[in-house]
Amino acid sequence: MIRITHRISLDDDEIEESFVRASGPGGQHVNKTETAVQLRFDVRRSPNLSDDVRMRLERLAGNRLTQDGVLILVADQYRSQRRNRDAALERLTELIREASIPPTPRRPTKPTFGSKQRRLEAKGQRSAVKRLRSNRHED
Fold it and tell me: Distance from CA of residue 4 to its chain's centroid?
């Protein structure tokens, strides 16, 4: 059981991990060990996520989400399989934590008296400039 927040926790069988060879430098070691981790989490079929968290998570995932709704995270920054695995899990939990926070609703505000005055003064100045540029100078 992986604890995300006090309300959300994921079962271990919801996360699928596969290990692949990491790209980049590393000498002979990198050519024979599979240290990179490819973590897969099915966002749409997870019973532990509410609908609003699921929608926000899909939006946050962006191009890391497949057509089927599977989130794929690849971690290959470390040389150790264990550290890459922990990094991928940490990124997943952080994404779900971020998706679990509902957006704060926008409170409509009225423009202040000063902002109205400044806008009207700027309009008047602009109007005067355009009036002076016109062919007919009536004033």
Answer: 17
Q: Which of residues 53 and 32 earns the better pLDDT score?
A: 53
Structure tokens, 136? 């007919």
| Entry pTM | 0.65
Give the residue ranges of DSSP H helices in 11-112: 28-32, 51-61, 81-100
* Nearest-angstrom CA–CA distance, 74 and 43: 16
* Pair 99, 60: CB distance under 8 Å: yes
Within 13 Å of residue 86, how many CA atoms lie on the same side as its CB? 6
Which residues make beta-bridge pairs with 10?
A: 2
For 117, the token pair is 């005055």
What is the Rg, in whole angstroms, of the alpha carbon atoms belonging to the chain? 27
pLDDT score recorded for residue 115: 96
Indicate the burial class of 57 (C-beta count within 10 angstroms; 0-12, 13-18, 19 or more): buried
